[in-house]
Amino acid sequence: MFLCSPNNPTGAVATHRQLQDFVEYAIAHQSVIIFDAAYSAYIKDADLPVTIYEVPGAEKCAIKINSFSKTAGFTGVSLGWAVVPKALAVENAPAGKANRLWNRRQSTFFNGASNIVQEDGLAALSPEGRKECRALVEFYMENARIIREGVRKTGLTVYGGDNAPYIWLKLPAGMKSWDFFDRLLNETGVVGTSGSGFGPKDEGYFRLSAFGHSENVEKVVARIESGLKLMEKGAPFPVDREGAPFESAE
Ligand SMILES: *Cc1c(COP(=O)(O)O)cnc(C)c1O
Fold it and tell me: Is the pLDDT of residue 103 over 90?
């Protein structure tokens, strides 16, 4: 099973209870859980688990993977890690076998990340590096707060942005994700992610990411606000280019 918490794309975070259900299921059915914790540093709510290993028994059924990408800006540089516990038992193999195979795979086939990238990783893990990484995460989460609260003021239902850098907008009834995408891009110069790009259940929703500069984030929120205010006044939304009520991007 693959679990990603905080989740990309939804931004939702699994509770202890939910993770415990998965762990109990995995142990009962000899399943292995791959737990992707790429966004764990974004969890603000102290009651939420940052790792599946907070659930007793998880070390017998879960592998955790993580990355420097979202916490230290390593996207493109690429460095990550995996936890394959010695207690992990895969199907009928004894506990420890998966750990030994993983070690063999890492040391013989992969040979490790380049020394340059490992030096970067060490810098990111130094006390100074960790402080800077924490500041970076806080900066993005402040962006998330600006987006969440700004868009909420327009009356739209907004989800997320609390424990993950993604904010979801529920579009006004009947509005399609791609129609909103087109309007936002063409009339305000803002790019977001069409919900329906993730699957049919996300039609009518739209995702904004907090990964950006705060000046731009504030502009984005102001543009969404003015666009939606015009809609409330009865302007058709979406409308064609000629009747566009949006101010054009500078
Ligand atoms: C960005 C991301 C990662 C990290 O991938 P890298 O290849 O290390 O950049 C892992 N999982 C999820 C869900 C992500 O969004």
Answer: yes
Return the residue whose CA atom lies nearest to atom 7 of ligand 1.
78
The span from the CA of 156 to the CA of 78, in Å, is 37
CATH code where residue 55 lies: 3.40.640.10
92 located within any domain: yes
- Read off the pLDDT of residues 182-225 as tens digits, 9 standing for 90 and up: 888 887 778 899 999 999 999 999 999 999 898 889 988 888 88
Judged against a pLDDT cut of 50, whether residue 22 lies above it is answered with: yes
Same domain, 94 and 139: no
Contacts of 86 (CB under 8 A, 6+ apart): 95, 96, 99
Q: Whose CA is nearest to atom 11 of ligand 1?
A: 38
88, 98 Cβ separation under 8 angstroms: yes
In 10 A of CB 135, how many CB atoms?
A: 9
Q: How far is CA 57 from CA 8, 51, 101, 169, in A?
A: 25, 13, 21, 37
Antiparallel, parallel or unpaired: β 80-83 and 62-67: antiparallel
Establish if 149 belongs to a structural domain: yes
Q: Which domain holds residue 172?
A: 131-227
- Structure confidence by residue, pLDDT tens digits, 120-141: 999 999 999 999 999 999 999 9
In this structure, are residues 177 and 169 in contact, taking their beta carbons and an 8 Å threshold?
Answer: no
What is the atom index within ligand 1 of the atom nearest the CA of 74? 9
